[in-house]
Design brief:
heterodimer; A: 7-stranded mixed β-sheet; B: mainly beta; 12 strands; globular
């Protein structure tokens, strides 16, 4: 089975621009979470979506938004980019519904550089 | 709030040495605990997990035991290989409704032959 996929792999944007990152979960997984990993740090939780509804939100400004589609894929949008938004953005999927569902499987990430 | 503290790295070992990476946590209730590994240029891979006190998670020669009395989940391996060189993250899932993983800052392991 295919793992979590993310696109694009790398992205370079200018301050003030907007960016959209995409994620496709593992087949059968209905939950998608987004994390930001700044260089040298552990991932920080941004959002979780389950069945197309937001189920959790981390301590990030309103410039960050996300949505989940009927096929359970997801997009993360960041507006008015700042230099500090430069990071690896990770998507994780999980099945939910059983104990095993709490395991989150991560994609390879999208490396965003803001100049 | 909930948090995870890992020993700072880098940890530098020779092949076949014994590895310990310390991890302690602060959380209300009874979180599930995880170790993830990140190889250079890649995303995170789940290494092992434990969901209740005294559980031992194990995978690929790595082990960690959920110690509620010391709020710890230390990662161990008896004989490391060069291919184990990576960044290791300890994490907890505090809410069984399945929301956010809370990660430590990561510990870089470098193994030389």
């Amino acid at each position: 089975d295919a793992g979590v996929t993310q696109s694009p792999t790398h992205l370079i944007k200018t301050r003030g621009q907007q960016v959209t990152l995409r994620c496709s979960p593992i087949s059968g997984h209905k939950s998608v979470s987004w994390y930001q990993q700044v260089l040298g740090q552990g991932p920080q939780f941004i959002f979780q979506y389950y069945e197309k509804e937001e189920r959790g939100r981390g301590n990030f400004p309103d410039r960050f938004s996300a949505r989940q589609f009927p096929n359970y894929s997801s997009e993360l949008n960041v507006n008015a980019l700042l230099l500090g938004d430069s990071a690896l953005y990770l998507c994780a999927s999980s099945r939910r519904g059983t104990e095993a569902s709490y395991e989150q499987y991560f994609g390879p990430g999208t490396r965003l550089t803001v100049t | 709030g909930d948090s995870v503290t890992q020993m700072e790295g880098p940890v530098t070992l020779s092949e076949e040495a014994f590895l310990t990476i310390n991890c302690t946590y602060t959380a209300t209730g009874y979180p599930s605990l995880f170790w993830y590994v990140q190889y250079p240029g890649e995303g995170l891979q789940l290494l092992l997990k434990a969901t209740k006190a005294d559980d031992k998670g194990s995978n690929k020669g790595f082990e960690a035991t959920y110690r509620k009395e010391t709020t710890s989940f230390h990662l161990e391996k008896g004989s490391v290989q060069v291919s184990d060189s990576a960044v290791y993250f300890c994490a907890l899932l505090a809410n069984q409704a399945g929301t956010a993983l809370i990660f430590g800052k990561g510990t870089t392991l470098s193994v030389s032959s």
